[in-house]
Design goal:
Elements: E1 8-9, H1 13-16, H2 19-23, H3 31-52, E2 63-64, H4 77-80, H5 85-100, H6 103-124, E3 126-127, E4 134-135, E5 146-147, E6 153-154, H7 161-180, H8 188-196, H9 244-259, H10 266-278, H11 282-295, H12 310-324, E7 325-326, E8 332-334, E9 345-352, E10 356-363, E11 366-374, E12 378-384, E13 387-393, E14 399-402
Parallel strand pairs: 8-12
Antiparallel strand pairs: 1-2, 3-4, 5-6, 7-8, 9-10, 10-11, 11-14, 12-13
Helix pairs in contact: 3-6, 5-6, 5-7, 6-7, 7-8, 10-11, 10-12
């Protein structure tokens, strides 16, 4: 019997395998994921109808397998009741478009996937009788629990941070896709209405941390391996440096988890490196890199849960790239979170959103030079340290910038 029944877990693990694909300019590696998850989503239309009575759209739960099963397969809500497998996977379709600018892919594959997931969420949400806002319920937060008011551990709640973060992301990406494709789509007005009044997914609790559930419940596992309520920090992009309250609350959330033994598994430690990158915290990233390599990898560098899980290796790779280049804020950050012992180096062949190839060289923890190659005429904003510039790029013509982002 294989560990975890040889399932593909889509509450982070399958997705983590593909995090490095776009930023390392290997987006063709996404194709097996898309080919497979389109099969899951097709069967997920049946699951939505038969399990939830929802006739619009499709969904799938926290695991699938070789046979593309989308239905709930765990006996406990703690494991099996999470409904956002399709919603998280939808982000990969959208990010593939953002990195490649392939409008045909957007029209033929991203938009249809987003539409099915968005349609399911429209019928899944209910109006909260007290707040009048749309809420996702019943909800869980992957593999975690809290102490209910009667003092017993519980996994099901009236809304969760991750659920609302993913729904908001699906709705926003759907509307952006429709706009780009210049489509007059029948779901758009309903999505706008529910998005406008959707329960926030990023709430700061009384202790200054991001709330995982709708109330600041105590947790049986304070150092839980999943950091689901920080989806909006990474791989999402709702929490950024510009949103200072949420940005600082995310850091306190991480500090709390680590204080209580968090990131104990290899893939969880890899996720932590990506969080550090998004929080522009190279010092913490270096500490987690050291722990990943010393604690979470075998002699052959395979990541161990234990047992061996390749997602930790790919998540680590994505984290390294994220420390060197970021483009999720609609501008390019160069060397945003350089670890303290990476004093000098050079990297070639990374990619920023907008289909822009990037080579970077640095010394004494500061940029020396960068080259940019765009597949289309565009204007980008680029930042390193305290320097920010707007740069005009020509199609298929590489340009070189110095440490002050001036054209060489």
């Amino acid at each position: 019997e294989a560990p975890w029944n040889a399932d593909y877990h889509v509450n982070i693990n399958l997705q983590m395998n593909y995090w490095p694909a776009n930023v390392t300019d290997l987006e063709e590696m996404n194709q097996p994921l898309f080919n497979f998850t389109e099969k899951v989503l097709k069967r997920g239309k049946v699951t939505a109808k038969e399990q939830y009575g929802i006739t619009r759209g499709a969904m799938f739960h926290h695991t699938t397998d070789l046979w593309a099963t989308p239905w709930m397969r765990a006996a406990r809500a703690y494991w099996g009741s999470w409904i956002h497998g399709g919603g998280w996977i939808a982000q990969h379709y959208w990010e593939h478009y953002r990195f490649t600018k392939d409008e045909r892919f957007l029209r033929e594959r991203t938009y249809p996937f987003l539409r099915e997931v968005a349609a399911f969420y429209l019928d899944w949400l209910i109006e909260d009788s007290e707040t009048g806002m749309w809420v996702s319920t019943p909800e869980t937060s992957p593999e975690n629990s809290y102490y209910a008011n009667d003092g017993r551990p519980a996994a099901v709640s009236h809304g969760s941070a991750m659920g609302h973060q993913i729904i908001r992301e699906v709705f926003e990406n759907y509307l952006e896709a429709v706009k780009i494709l210049n489509m007059n789509e029948d779901l758009s007005s309903e999505i706008r209405e529910k998005l406008h009044n959707l329960t926030p997914g990023v709430k700061v609790g009384p202790e200054g941390r991001i709330l995982e559930w709708p109330e600041p419940y105590a947790e049986p596992e304070k150092g839980h391996r999943h950091m689901s309520h920080l989806y909006a920090l990474h791989p999402g992009d709702e929490i950024t440096y510009e949103n200072r309250e949420a940005f600082e609350a995310a850091q306190r959330t991480i500090d709390f988890r680590l204080k209580h033994g968090g990131a104990g598994t290899g893939w969880s430690r890899a996720w932590m490196i990506n969080f550090n990158a998004r929080l522009l915290d190279g010092k913490s990233a270096q500490q987690n890199i050291n722990k990943f390599l010393s604690i979470s990898t075998a002699d052959n560098l395979f990541c161990e849960h234990p047992p061996f899980q390749i997602d930790g290796n790919f998540g680590y790779t994505a984290g390294v790239a994220e420390l060197l280049i970021q483009s999720h804020e609609r501008f390019i950050r160069l060397l945003p979170a350089l670890p303290f012992n990476w004093s000098e180096g050079k990297v070639t062949g990374l990619k920023a959103r907008g289909n822009i190839k990037v080579d970077i060289e640095w010394k004494d923890h500061a940029l020396i030079s960068v080259s940019l190659l765009s597949k289309q005429i565009t204007t980008i904003r680029i930042k390193t340290g305290q320097v920010t510039k707007e740069i005009d790029l020509k199609k298929n013509k590489k340009i070189y910038l110095n440490h002050d982002l001036e054209i060489i």
